[in-house]
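ESCALATION

Customer reports they have been waiting on this structure for their group meeting. Please prioritize. Original submission:
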Amino acid sequence: MPNIAVIGAGVNGVASAIKILEHHLKEDAKTSIRVTIISEDFTPNTTGDGSAGLWGPYLLGGTPQSKVYKWSKSMHQFLEKIWLSEDAGEAGVCLLPCTRLSTSTVDSVEDFWRDIVYGAMGLTDHQLAAYNRGRTVKFTSGLSFITYTSEPVKLLPYLMKRFIRNGGLIIRKKIVDLDAFIAESEYDVIVNCSGLGSRQLLDDDQMYPVRGQVSRVKANWMFSAVLDESDDGHYIIPNTESVVLGGTHQEGDYNTLVCGRDRQMIVDGTRSFVPGLEHSEKLFDWVGLRPGRGQLRLDAERRGQKLIIHNYGHGGSGVTLCWGCADDVLDLLLHSKIVSKL
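Update from on-call: job pushed to the front of the queue and completed.
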């Protein structure tokens, strides 16, 4: 019986585990398989639980655009399937109108993914003028479209429930020495989705934290997202029970405490293009460390008879890429000799 461990219970670890388990149940339900998620923390205590869950490629360094497109399209299709099902409410999947804005005088809003989302259209000069009112640095282009939010604080419990219902196992444990774990464990396949933890587990010095601080407010009148793509840009993303105001992307910063200066920057910045937010009710602030890397790592290696698959370094796009990256994790597994056991 194939025995597979997935290290990490963020969206990428859980998605990879589900993809492997559900493929086996669909293709060969008569034989047994064991898939176990091993992590120190599970929802609601993962980095992803604090994020807004808006679909959209973000902070991916030098990862090839073609791969980002493929992975993010797979996730969009997965979210569409959930949204059309009775699970949408439980999974926190909602359709959301969005506007992305840019102040660049060289490039327009990045839109290599525009055929994935619904109804993408460039903003007119008149529409841009509304956002530029009172601004010193003007927006030069914008894109409006409709996509999905999948709030991890709801999506992760839904996915975990789905995983366990299909026979998946969980172990709460911190892996601190990957080499020792590989050598001593009984697993045939180990999928490393440890995110920022891969810096320690693999001594991967390409990994670095990208500190993200957000504020959540109650603003029931907000029904669309607005995102400024400038280096110091802000964003407003409605969730079902709150609105997420962001944010920071401070590379190399391990500070997980809320910073009052950052909070004020976020509040002032978001109010600059939606002044009505001054009437919102503050709920709480949150800080998380995104797993930054020069390029997302998704590959496989052999350690003796064991197969090790690495899937980490998703930057600010963990939710956006998780289902597509899980496709590739499954492909790597199926193309290995382990496939004979599946």
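Sent to customer with the following note: The longest strand covers residues 281-293.
Escalation resolved.
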